[in-house]
Design brief:
The protein is an all-alpha fold and about 400 residues long.
């Protein structure tokens, strides 16, 4: 059995398993609203908003691969551009689902699209996401069309792809940097507030999305020789390694500055992240599984496609912990001292651990993301054809 067939079987098993177990969570969400979630008035954002940032980052990172293909003509990834678009679209769908279920009235999200407030960062997010989704779909269309035409027509399509690719670069910086801006503009939350957060969001997006693509390209490799496949995987591995080092430099800077005055403001929250009740989220899930093990694999096993794919999967999967450690700690410190003791209710606390129902909904969303990718891969000519003129 080929690696692709094994990958298809495993992914469909996960889709069915996650979908079946998560369906009751989705039904609970729409039947009972937010009653069975663990967040409340003091902590209004939880697992789903963290997942939204995680998935939208994966999408932006996958877009980076397509830009390398169609704008910069990187030889190593020339045959996986269409697959990058499909990954970007699938994860974008999941991100919109995650933020949708978090809304009290999901259908009101359309008011952001048709009647945006351009004085609000969230208003701009609606505009940018709409533009991003349309751009991805149009780019995928022309990427497929490029293989269906020849001669002057193909050259014309290539020019269109270059223009769209160039346009998508500032668009990606704007929409995902804007996500960071939504948090960074909240001056009442010192853990979020600051000019570096949009940069951190972008670096994490390119890292996690690029890492995910290492795994996708390994399992569903295009039609290419063994040497081409090895060159592609080594290139993706080196790119991921460089982004991992960059992301860790930014994180170490945040930790150092944040913990310098550990008893005050942001420092107190960093102490909670590093040594508090959920310390294992940072040290084990993020640092060990998402950084140290991949760092070893990408350096000691830098020419092993399997090791590169595994490193990418570990980074991409564990990056949800990174997003949780951005979203949740920023809300743990009450602006008014003593407010937690003034009123006592399960929805009026400054502690948060996702409920089973929240995890069910997230797994259902992940199942949808994988299903969109698998169905898209099945019905669309995603793989490079032998006769394509590069």
């Amino acid at each position: 059995m080929t690696r692709e067939k094994m990958g298809n079987i495993l992914v469909w098993i996960l889709i069915i398993g996650f979908g079946v177990w998560g369906f009751s969570g989705i039904m609970d969400r729409f039947a009972n609203g937010h009653i069975n979630t663990a967040y409340g008035s003091y902590i209004p954002w939880g697992l789903w908003i963290s997942a939204y940032i995680w998935l939208i980052g994966l999408s932006a990172g996958a877009l980076m691969i397509s830009v390398m293909t169609y704008v910069f003509n990187v030889e190593a990834v020339k045959k996986v551009g269409k697959m990058a678009f499909l990954v970007a679209i699938a994860t974008l769908v999941g991100a919109m689902m995650a933020v949708g279920v978090d809304l009290g009235h999901p259908l009101r999200a359309f008011s952001l699209i048709f009647d945006p407030n351009l004085h609000s960062m969230m208003g701009w997010m609606a505009v940018l996401y709409s533009a991003y989704f349309v751009t991805l779909c149009v780019e995928l269309y022309f990427a497929i069309k490029k293989e269906q035409v020849r001669g002057e027509k193909q050259k014309g399509v290539k020019k269109i792809l270059v223009v769209l690719g160039i346009w998508s670069i500032p668009l990606a910086f704007a929409f995902h940097g804007g996500v960071g801006g939504v948090f960074a503009n909240v001056i009442a939350k010192p853990y979020w507030h600051g000019p570096m957060l949009p940069v951190v969001f972008l670096a994490g997006a390119f890292l996690s999305g690029g890492a995910l693509f290492c795994t996708v390209a390994y399992i569903w490799r295009p039609s290419q020789s063994k040497d081409e496949f090895l060159k592609m995987m080594i290139f993706l591995g080196k790119t991921t390694l460089a982004l991992l080092i960059l992301d860790e430099i930014l994180e170490l800077s945040e930790v150092y500055v944040g913990t310098f005055y550990s008893a005050y403001g942001e420092g107190h929250l960093w102490q909670q992240i590093l040594f508090g009740q959920y310390w294992y989220t940072f040290w084990i899930v993020h640092l060990l599984i998402g950084v140290l093990i991949p760092l070893f694999l990408l350096t000691a096993k830098s020419k092993s496609p399997g090791a590169i794919a595994l490193a990418g999967l570990l980074i991409a999967g564990s990056f949800l912990a990174v997003r949780l450690n951005i979203v949740i700690p920023g809300m743990l410190d009450p602006e008014i001292k003593g407010i937690a003791e003034a009123w006592v209710h399960s929805k009026l606390t400054f502690s948060y651990l996702p409920s089973v129902m929240e995890w069910q909904v997230l797994l259902f969303i992940v199942a949808v993301v994988m299903a969109v990718f698998m169905i898209g891969k099945k019905i669309l000519p995603i793989y490079q054809t032998a006769g394509d003129e590069s």
